[in-house]
Amino acid sequence: MFELGDLHVYYCKYAITYIRMIFYATQLFCQFCLKNGINIERFVERVRRRRV
């Protein structure tokens, strides 16, 4: 889900910190979408199409 297969860290505590940052950023994004009435699924689908 968060592409952790590419995560390259030597210590577990750094991986946990990285994962916490991702979850925090995701939470902020979801709050922003809800506050502004943006459909998250539609937004993500549009971003995926442009990423090709």
Could you explain how this protein is built, in words?
With 52 residues, this protein is an all-alpha fold. It has one domain. 69% of the residues lie in helices and 0% in strands. The protein has two helices and no strands. It is elongated, with a radius of gyration of 14 Å. The protein starts with 11 loop residues before the first helix and ends with a helix.
Along the chain, the helix and strand elements come as: HH
Tally of alpha and pi helices: 2
Mean model confidence by pLDDT = 81
- Portion in strands: under 5%
Number of domains: 1
Global outline: elongated
The tally of strands reads: 0
The biggest beta sheet is recorded as: none
Going by helix content, strand content and strand pairing, the class is mainly alpha
Helix share bin: 55-70%
What low-confidence regions span 5 or more consecutive residues with pLDDT below 50?
none
Give the C-alpha Rg.
Answer: 14 Å
End-to-end separation in angstroms reads 18 Å
List keywords for this structure.
52 residues; mainly alpha; 69% helix
Write the layout of secondary structure elements.
Layout: H1 12-36, H2 40-50
Question: Summary?
Answer:
The protein has 52 residues and is mainly alpha-helical. The chain is built from two helices and no strands.
